[in-house]
Amino acid sequence: MTDSSVERALEILCNGGLVAIPTETVYGLAGDASNEAAVRRIFAAKGRPAEHPLIVHVAAAGQLGDWAATVPPTAAVLADTCWPGPLTLLVPKAAHVLPVVTGGRETVGIRVPAHPLTTELLSRFGGGLAAPSANRFGKVSPTTAAHVVADLGSRVDYVLDGGACSVGVESTIVDCTTTPPQILRPGGIGSEEISALLEGALADADGPSRAPGMLASHYAPNAHVVLVETAQEAAAIAASSSGGWILDRSDNLVAYAHCLYAELRSADERGVHTIIAVMPPAIGLGHAIRDRLTKAAAH
Known about the structure:
Blueprint: H1 3-14, E1 19-21, E2 28-32, H2 36-46, E3 55-57, H3 64-67, H4 73-82, E4 87-92, H5 99-102, E5 107-111, H6 116-125, E6 129-130, H7 145-152, E7 158-159, E8 172-175, E9 182-185, H8 191-198, E10 203-204, E11 224-228, H9 231-240, E12 244-247, H10 253-269, E13 274-278, H11 285-297
Parallel strand pairs: 1-7, 3-5, 4-8, 9-10, 11-13, 12-13
Antiparallel strand pairs: 1-2, 2-6, 3-6, 4-5, 8-9
Helix pairs in contact: 1-6, 10-11
């Protein structure tokens, strides 16, 4: 893509339109976070429940204070060390943050994505872009521009094509308003790394849903997803059933995360009835992959 594509995306966003933006995690459906009409269009395009909050994307860590009423010390540490990158920080929202962005909550999720096209776009835009994944709500997230077009079609005004997403699963969400901080959604940065940076323990999500990806069923293909812990279990189920397809990249967590959503989409395109997914070990990116597969299987 060229500077002209970023210019076109910028023009649309400044006029209240919606642009699919590439990030290192998945493609986002972006609109001006300060424009209530644009944000409501995001919910309508996705079929997303109004109480389900959005993440605000900004160009640099220095903008965290523009969107937070206060910056908790844990948020400051993580912003300084992990941004740009696949990490979202939940912080107390500033007074100007629209309730439609936060689902009426007093907290807001902020992230600095790591993709050169979107970094340029955000820098030139100056403000924040509210951007959930660019797909129909509850379905498999998009990791290419073609996935966005297939899911949303004319519901999105422009797709900024930045190639395939390098990480392939959504950002880790850390609630920095609790003590200790809580991992609300495992993602592109492992809980082990976050715990080491904070030099303290983290807690699992507790309390009401207050961030994207916290619902029990999400990221779901049309196919039925069966979860197993070993390749041997997968082979046994596949041998005893018709149409079962095995998904197993558990020996390489980076590759598993990178291809996960593309593989789920491919299975649907090929009419696979049952996906037999081998769960990766619960370390690093494995936490995020296990989370996505568990929620896909709950559909």
